[in-house]
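Sample 1 of the test manifest.
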Amino acid sequence: MSVSVSAEPLPSPLLRPRFADMEYVSPEGLRLDGRRPLEMRQIKAEIGAVSKADGSAVFEMGNTKVIAAVYGPREVQNRSQQLSDQALVRCEYSMANFSTGDRMRKPKGDRRSTEISLVIRQTMEACILTHLMPRSQIDIFVQVLQADGGTRSACINAATLALADAGIPMRDLVTSCSAGYLNSTPLLDLNYVEDSAGGPDVTVGFLPKLDKVTLLQMDAKLPIDTFENVMQLAIEGCKAVANYIREVLLENTKQLECRRGV
Amino acid sequence: MRGLQVSLNQTQKIRLQRALEKIDSFSSKSNPNASVTVADTIPVNFEDGVLKGHGTSELDGEVVATLCGVVERVNKLVYVRTLRARYKPEIGDIIVGRVIEVAPKRWRLEINFSQDAVLMLSSMNLPDGIQRRRTAVDELNMRSIFEENDVVCAEVRGFQHDGSLHLQARSQKYGKLERGQLLTVSPYLVKRRKQHFHHIEQYGIDLILGCNGFIWVGEHVEARDDMIVEDQVSTSEQQNATPNRYPASLEEQERTYTPLETRQNICRTANAVRVLSTLGFSINVEVIMEMVNLSSSLNLNIHEMLGAEFCVLVAEGEAERRSLKKKKG
């Protein structure tokens, strides 16, 4: 069983649990961390983690913890990249050296983080109303503080919150969630152990209001009918995340308005 | 909570919480359902016809918010007023900015907008109100007026055809700001008013509340005649061709010397602004002065104003003030 590039970094082949000889769902219907197959990890979001940024947020999905900071819209740093009719969106994804079990040597510039940066940038660009801010640039920085599977989803959710906090106009709140298929059971929101099993892992980015998918990634093969089930499960996860994010934002907006007074 | 990085003890925590709850209760009664987040539907009565303003878009015949903020309705117009966002310029706003580039015939200023603002040399009048003549010499001496990293106060002139934002400084009250502190707060905390320049005689300081959230606290300058002086300097420079930037003479040093007391007053006022900004309370000159007076009446040191106790006191004071206002109104 080969593991594709985009799976979470693995400690070593010896420690890696084997997909074939592991039981990911017990006969009682419980997963390794005690969840039910259709259960998400606990999510927690906090707005305003970086004081100097225009918008920032921390997003946690179980043991995965991600921090996002948004700067902009601001003057384009590199004049040659300036777009006269829309804003330039840039994104940088990085993993903290201490985010995984064994310390990472080279946290920046590897192929995996370049790919995830690109994915996040494209997903966010699809929902930002870039034409309202011509000749400016928006920088999104996301960093993984703790990695336990589903960092890509957590990063997108954190970036959404940070963008909304920065007051950047958006079509919709894009949210993301992953789902997998192990032991012939669709599983919602895979953690590190389940992710490294090497089974199919479907990450979906979803616009709940418009009912549209902006991101869909899978790195294995699945029969089409199973795939549809798994994807539907991921979409349900996205909706749950969206509800939570909406609550957090509304609470934050109300608080800011109340504090300010008249 | 955003920004609040003081360590509170148990009683302070409870007092702060109580004060903030009290504040929250006043506002929530007056306007309960006006807050929206991205992609929330804004309820409107389509029979009257609706004008969709900033922060809204149309989706399947519904008006949908594209920002987080508060819904405002003016006759037919519906728009979302955002809270934490960058500054949105309006013509005539008084702003404070920092020069980041001296370009041909213009300065570029950072003003917390999505682009840099432009201040043309021709948008600056000579000290006695005469229009500038466009001479090459004038252009070469631009650095004697403003240099990079200078803090400048100006007025928003408007957007040019190419979408760039232009500023002007056609009066004595605008121009370079020296001997003081620049503070940056979120622009939504500064309300547009008739008066943004404040001279606080009691403390001998000037306070400029820029609409872009840049706040200047500095020593009071009597009838800004800096520009005359500087023009004279520049002409003498041309004659002698020996640029001497440093104030060498004793007389010059006397002129730029700020007494200790004034410096302390500047710091006290600046700290009052910092406390208000971390608590997210609206910033205006009355509140700032109240904070300054409160801190001096309590005999607090300047640095103690950023501590937990003063922060709690400010929150309690604000709750008290709002409850009084409520009773009156």
